[in-house]
Specification:
single chain; about 120 residues; alpha/beta; four-stranded parallel beta sheet
Length: about 120
């Protein structure tokens, strides 16, 4: 990836290296590749740095560590380090479908949204 990424994916994480591994693995399967990933470790004792390192040759990924302040401030910390045109927040337990960014990019080019949200599960 060169230049400014289209999307910056911010992932606040607290003691969830196994979940993060599944998320990062799903991001390696994206058909659209112009994105960066910022993993913000929120003061975890069970850290994710080695998991992030395992994906550093397959994703444009950064690992950021900060003292524990909760998910909101951790997202903001990630936004402050992000370079993308759009910020996307995923929780560590997400698994992203392979065409996610491709579909979002097409929709953004067609409709020029400022923001969008994910699907809601209906129970």
């Amino acid at each position: 990836m060169q230049g400014i990424p289209r999307f910056s994916v911010v992932v606040p994480v607290y003691n969830r290296p196994d979940e993060l591994r599944e998320l990062l693995e799903s991001l390696t399967r994206q058909t659209y590749q112009n994105f960066e990933v910022l993993v913000v470790e929120d003061g975890s004792s069970d850290r994710c740095d080695t998991v992030v390192q395992q994906y550093s040759n397959r994703l444009a990924v950064q690992y950021l560590y900060k003292p524990n302040t909760g998910p909101g401030p951790s997202r903001n910390f990630g936004f402050a380090h992000a370079r993308g045109e759009y910020f996307v927040v995923f929780d560590s337990d997400c698994i992203v479908p392979p065409h996610y960014f491709e579909v979002v990019d097409v929709a953004l080019r067609k409709h020029a949204f400022d923001a969008w949200g994910g699907s809601r599960s209906r129970t």
